UniProtKB/TrEMBL annotation:
Gene from which the chain derives: pepN
GO molecular function: alanyl aminopeptidase activity
Substrates-to-products reaction catalysed: Release of an N-terminal amino acid, Xaa-|-Yaa- from a peptide, amide or arylamide. Xaa is preferably Ala, but may be most amino acids including Pro (slow action). When a terminal hydrophobic residue is followed by a prolyl residue, the two may be released as an intact Xaa-Pro dipeptide
The protein, known as: Aminopeptidase N
Occurrences of domain Peptidase M1 membrane alanine aminopeptidase (ranges): 232-443
Pfam (any one): Peptidase_M1_N
Every Peptidase M1 alanyl aminopeptidase C-terminal domain range: 558-881
Keyword line: Aminopeptidase, Hydrolase, Metal-binding, Metalloprotease, Protease, Zinc
Residues annotated as domain Aminopeptidase N-like N-terminal: 90-193
Length: 881
């Protein structure tokens, strides 16, 4: 057992390892309950470590069977051992070989960290600290070794044996039912990138020839019978490999690249060297079972894990504080890949929606932390939207500030200078500083200061002077542990849109023009004056959402309507409508609470109607424009004393008003964008479906345009999961009379398909009506429900807690109690999953008093429970602090 209340680990305490490991030779005898691991570690004292230091190896729930040094069994007084550490008190201070034998029970491993079994398949997950659950080892990312892995298993049980690197040997064990394979990975790596798989799996194979002619054998391994669903993932993999060569000059470096899909996985996927292991949700797709969003996620995650081969694997992290070095950068890379494969503006809109929904919320609550945290108690709780998504935004800002060429030069230098190393954020920034001659000291605050910066901008046209002045003020709100903040470097991308809709030239008072239309805001206050502005422009601010900030400006609703129609920056056309909608929704929420009449959303409806009527616009884009901010978006913007019922009522009223006022064009678009042929997951076809389904949902909400009848028709005739699921959702929300029938139909069609059943569970947990909590409770007793499968838990309970604001936040607190019970029930078997679920309560302080008290009581009940895991203990403590 690990200590539930470990001392915080601090970045400032980093010390290089005392001992290095150059080679790791593993001999693994797979057995369902008694797997034997023999590890031979070639070690030597680290010249940069402390002289004469003992060898201290990490373990986690390990059972030591034997220990030898240079071939000699060690006497009991030469070492001390517990399940969580192995110490050689006075080792000879020279190169030596340590042989360690441990015994594991993979079938009993419900934490899904280390070596475990998923539907009978042996697999591993070692990031962040899972390798120590396999053998005693210096489990830290700055110990890089060359691994050779021999895996032995029953041929019947595990005909497929996979490891990192290239396969160098395989064979039978004569006279037995066992066989083996030996894998060698020539690239030194930290132990968190170790992986092995053994099982009965089907394979989809392909080849890829790299830019310099290396012939790579590609394999995707899936549960028997599911190979036909791995084709899209394979296609995405090949496109990723080509793109990384073209966009970043990164070429693959082994003869084999394998991906294995497993059903039980704590997160999305894992970038183990040459052997990525995936949650099968992000590999398996067919038109009948996967939605357009599923296809897009598969493409993005396949790319993400592949891109880690350079950003993460060839160059890894010195310590876990540097997690964003690989994650933020790799998210940025996968976002750019998807933008190039699909519609760049729509991709940016979707990414910013997610950023605001998850990261802005995190940054505004008790779990806020810097992109590079300075301290942690449980590293698994720091795989967050801040490290990933804000981390990606910081890289994007670097590119905006340095320009494409400067950015690419910095990346090239990073690959050249740090290949084969465990690096830091300082190393990374130094490459950009050196490649471009830019001082990035102040920019580095983006890694150290938490909280979402705010920009307050006032623009004023001076007709007499023919000038336009922008007064810009920045501030960063206080966050846990950081009461006072310093000013940040914020790239302010902007345009001045003239009355005819054209961008006016941007000439500052001194005659210069900001490069690329980007002003640098680095002081608390600035005044920028543009000259030669003959007509009153409307400023288009933070174009492309170049900076991840909150923006308040003096733009009027007429200005926003104008931008929605004319801005040449598509992101800001979209954002103008969202800003109008949020303004309306905040006012409407207040009106609901005080029993006043709701305001008229005329300007907003006109702006939406204009988008819908504009044939030049991409349907996917129009679909985004018509998607009004979510209940959580509204709650986040209100920021305090939130009543989720009032938010819901305001939003439903707006959607009804839109559906009623635009009934005709919405119904027209629904007809016009019907698919011309069979299903294809490409971005253009997906965009048409997004638009149609958005139209349908607005019509159904308004009871207009035969919305419900059309949804029923679409459900019955659907040849793909996107239409079937969207129409099912619309019917579940707006046609209670039809609900039971369509849900039963859906269940019967897909009862044997776990990934689709997850959707069935998820849809029911998100119905915004008072019976839902009881329904969710009842569904936990459904034969198909299991707390052992993370996807299922997230589908039913996760989506209830994060996707059903009115019912999770029931005024009687029953939603919070249910979550607390589930978290406590799960904590013993899968603490990582339990801690994730608990994250749903992170915004409890913004709730109105009654709910706030109930949420706090649920958190206190968890905090007061004995024997919590470090994972849950950390989240609950910080949530209450
Ligand atoms: N690096 C993994 C995440 C590991 C999570 C460990 N708790 C997947 C990824 O970000 O690519
Ligand atoms: Zn990653």
């Amino acid at each position: 057992m690990r200590d539930a209340d470990p001392k915080p680990i601090r970045l400032v305490d980093y010390r290089p390892p005392d001992w290095l490991v150059d080679t790791v030779d593993l001999d693994i005898g797979l057995h369902p309950t008694a797997t034997v691991i023999r590890a031979r570690l070639g070690m030597r004292p680290n010249p940069a470590g402390r002289e004469g230091a003992p060898i201290v190896l990490d373990g986690d729930e390990l059972v030591l069977k034997s220990l030898a040094l240079d071939g000699e069994t060690l006497a009991g007084n030469a070492y001390s051992v517990t399940p969580s550490s192995l110490t050689l008190l006075a080792p000879p201070q020279r190169a030596l070989t340590l042989e360690i034998e441990t015994l594991l029970d993979p079938s009993a491993n419900t934490k899904l960290m280390g070596l475990y079994r998923s539907s009978g398949t042996y697999c591993t997950q070692c990031e962040a600290e899972g390798f120590r659950r396999i053998t005693y080892f210096p489990d830290r990312p700055d110990v890089l070794a060359v691994y050779t892995t021999r895996i032995e298993a029953e041929r019947e049980e595990a005909p497929v044996l996979l490891g990192n690197g290239n396969k160098v040997e395989e064979g039978e064990l004569p006279g037995t039912t066992r066989h083996f394979a030996v894998w060698h990975d020539p690239w030194p790596k930290p132990c968190y990138l170790f992986a092995l798989v053994g099982g009965r799996l089907d394979r989809v194979g392909d080849r890829f020839v790299t830019a310099t002619g290396r012939d790579v054998e590609l394999g995707i391994y899936v549960e028997p019978g599911k190979a036909a669903r791995a084709g899209y993932a394979m296609d995405a993999l090949k496109r990723s490999m080509r793109w990384d060569e073209e966009a970043f000059g990164c070429e693959y470096d082994l003869d084999v690249f394998n991906i294995v899909a497993v059903a039980d996985f704590n997160m999305g996927a894992m970038e183990n060297k040459g052997l990525n292991i995936f949650n099968d949700k992000y590999v398996l797709a067919s038109p009948e079972t996967a939605t357009d969003n599923d296809y897009a996620s598969i493409e993005g995650i396949i790319a993400h894990e592949y891109f880690h081969n350079w950003t993460g694997n060839r160059i890894t992290c010195r310590d876990w504080f540097q997690l964003c070095l690989k994650e933020g950068l790799t998210v940025f890379r996968d976002q750019e890949f998807s933008a190039d494969q699909r519609s760049r503006p729509v991709k940016r809109i979707i990414d910013v929606r997610l950023l605001k929904a998850y990261q802005f919320t995190e940054d505004a609550g008790p779990l806020a932390h810097p992109v590079r945290p300075a301290t942690y108690r449980e590293i698994n709780n720091f795989y967050t939207a801040t490290v990933y998504e804000k981390g990606a935004e910081v890289v994007r800002m670097l590119k905006t500030l340095l320009g494409s060429e400067g950015f690419r030069n910095g990346m090239d230098l990073y690959f050249e200078r740090h290949d084969g190393q465990a690096a830091t954020i300082e190393d990374f920034l130094a490459c950009f500083a050196d490649a471009t001659g830019t001082d990035l000291a102040q920019f580095a605050l983006w890694y150290a200061q938490s909280g979402t910066p705010q920009l307050a901008i006032t623009g004023e046209w001076n007709p007499a002077e023919r000038s336009y002045r922008l007064d810009v003020e920045q501030s960063v709100p206080p966050t846990p542990g950081q009461p006072d903040k310093q000013p940040m470097v914020i790239p302010l991308a902007l345009g001045l849109v003239g009355p005819s809709g054209e961008d006016l030239p941007l000439t500052l008072a001194d005659g210069t023009s900001p490069a690329g239309g980007v002003l640098t805001v680095d002081a608390p206050r600035h005044s920028f004056v543009f000259r030669d502005v003959a007509e009153r422009p409307v400023p288009s601010l933070n174009r492309g959402f170049a900076a991840p900030v909150r923006l308040a400006s003096n733009l009027s609703s007429d200005d926003l309507v104008f931008l929605a129609r004319h801005d040449r920056d598509p992101f800001n056309r979209f954002e103008a409508v969202q800003t109008l909608a949020l303004g309306y929704l905040i006012e409407a929420t207040q009106a609901v609470r005080s029993g006043r009449n709701l305001p008229e959303p005329a300007a907003l409806i006109a702006a939406m109607g204009a988008s819908l009527a504009d044939p030049a616009l991409d349907p996917a884009f129009v679909g985004q424009v018509l998607t009004v901010p979510s209940e959580s978006d509204i709650a986040r913007e209100i920021g305090r004393d939130v009543d989720p019922d009032a938010v819901y009522a305001a939003r439903a009223t707006l959607r009804r008003a839109v559906g009623t006022a635009l009934a005709e064009p919405l119904a027209g678009a629904f007809e016009r964008f019907a698919a011309p042929g069979p299903y294809s997951p490409d971005a253009a076809s997906a965009g048409r479906r997004t638009l149609r389904n958005t139209c349908l949902s607005l019509l159904a909400e308004a009871g207009a345009g035969e919305g419900v009848a059309r949804a029923l028709g679409l459900y019955r005739a659907a040849d793909n999961m996107t239409d079937r699921l969207q129409s099912l959702m619309t019917l579940c929300h707006h046609a209670p009379g039809q609900r039971a029938e369509v849900l039963a139909d859906f269940y019967e069609r897909f009862r044997d398909d776990p990934l689709v059943l997850d959707k069935w569970f998820g849809i029911q947990s998100q119905i915004p009506e008072p019976g839902t909590l009881d329904r969710v409770r009842e569904l936990t007793g459904h034969p198909a429900f299991s707390l052992r499968n993370p996807n299922r838990v997230r589908a039913l309970i996760g989506s209830f807690a994060t996707g059903n604001p009115t019912q999770f936040n029931r005024a009687d607190g029953a939603g919070y109690d249910f979550l607390a019970d589930t978290v406590l029930g799960l904590d013993g078997s899968n603490p990582q999953l339990a801690a994730r679920l608990l994250g749903a309560l992170k915004s409890w302080r913004v709730l109105e008093e009654g709910r706030r008290g109930k949420a706090e009581a649920a958190l206190r009940r968890i905090a007061g429970t004995a024997g919590l895991s470090p994972d849950v203990s950390d989240i609950v403590t910080r949530s209450l602090a």
